[in-house]
Amino acid sequence: xxxxxxxxxxxDTTQARYDVVVLGAGPVGENVADRTRAxxxxxxxxxxxxxxGECSYWACMPSKALLRPAIARADARRVPGLxxxxxxxxxxADVLAHRDYEAADWKDDGQVAWLESIGAVFHRGHGRxxxxxxxxxxxxxxxxxxxxxxxxxxxxxxxxxVLPDLPGLDEVRPWTSREATSARQVPGRLIxxxxxxxxxxxxxxxxxxxxxxxxxxxxxxxxxxxxxxAGELVAETLTEAGADVRTGTSVTSVTRENGTVVALTDTxxxxxxxxxxxxxxxxPRTDDIGLDTVGLEPGSWLPVDDSLRVTGSDWLYxxxxxxxxxxxxxxxxYQARIAGAAIAARAAGxxxxxxxxxxxxxxxxxxxxxxxxVFTDPEAASVGLTVAEAEHAGHRVRAVDVEFSSVAGxxxxxxxxxxxARMVVDLDREILRGVTFVGPAVGELIxxxxxxxxxxxxxxxxxxxxxxxxxxxxxxxxxxEAYRG
Length: 485
Hints:
Elements: E1 8-9, E2 13-23, H1 27-38, E3 43-47, H2 53-58, H3 60-76, H4 92-102, H5 109-117, E4 121-124, E5 126-129, E6 134-138, E7 144-155, E8 159-161, H6 169-172, H7 177-182, E9 189-193, H8 197-208, E10 212-217, H9 228-240, E11 244-247, E12 251-257, E13 260-265, E14 270-273, E15 275-278, E16 282-284, E17 316-318, H10 329-347, E18 371-374, E19 379-384, H11 387-392, E20 397-403, H12 408-413, E21 420-426, E22 431-439, H13 446-454, H14 459-462, H15 475-484
Parallel strand pairs: 2-3, 2-7, 3-4, 7-17, 9-10, 9-15, 10-11
Antiparallel strand pairs: 1-2, 5-6, 6-7, 8-16, 12-13, 13-14, 18-19, 19-22, 20-21, 21-22
Helix pairs in contact: 1-10, 3-4, 3-8
């Protein structure tokens, strides 16, 4: 039965029935729509901002466009015969113009066209749940669309930056990740508050573009969710690039005086800057989507099972940031594929074995091998558990560390290549629980580690996965040799 056959119209309100309604048209919501449409289910997608979401316009794409010139220049400076050619400043105007291109100039025509090309129906406007399987969309033109889902409503509304509770902060007009990735000009002085991924990536990018950058970290170091040496190496390189990295420091007040940001810290410092970026956490964008109409707490993270169905529901799903399992675009897209398969299977009456993470229908999600790359200089990449996390989970593990200086390919890649690798070996099962790489270009190594962790490949079997010589991936051989002794 088609959507149009189930559509009723009045002067100000339209009503339509679909098999699936997706709230949020970011990469995750788009992937849900792609999978449900491929399964033959009619699907509507609702978006209040830009189709393509945070990743396309204010996160992954623009941030990496800002970072790529910085990393390429840093790499070139370490290569004989090139370094003298890249000693000058980056062309900031050119970098920002390319950033605008990668962000599609903040226009979503192409994304909307893609959704329509797969047969999804796009509704622009603010969507809210209005009871089970029912979504009301308030359109920009004042119209209202009432959408009913036969099988599933999927929440894919992402997350937003959280600002600290500091008096007068609104008047300061601080940057969040959105302003940091879309700024129209390079600030002369920038204060970055935070030590996580957004903080270190934006500190790297804007320092390379010419900003005087001060990083204020409340904790002991950068990248606290990775192995400690990852943040240490990134901090060293940021400092060498001219950034001022201060740990154990919190902002106690911030004002804007005659256009200048003035920040006071708990260590008694007074810092002045043109802009201040707070990269201090994320919250779910679920506060105004009608969760209360289905018995859920507005503004909450949505707990889900391994098929991404919200706990206690047989029709509501949550994918991506909204369920708080892993705030990463690639993991959200993975969840979207799982949710799409699960919705299609249930619509067809096919049972889902949630206890089988590798089921043939691929309708249950496994989050034991979550990879991440931080695009700093050096890059930091990890998958699975750190040593501390593995021990906390009750595993008996051994950490195996190797410096990249032992790998011929690293020396060929760059003079003075600095980096380290760690694999966390489960001593009882002889499999890898986690892997961390830090060094130039290590982001391209992490998928091999992801396969090893996700596939629970025995260490003895990894010995026969021979890395090519002379490549940086020979670090695998060095890690296995270190483990064997």
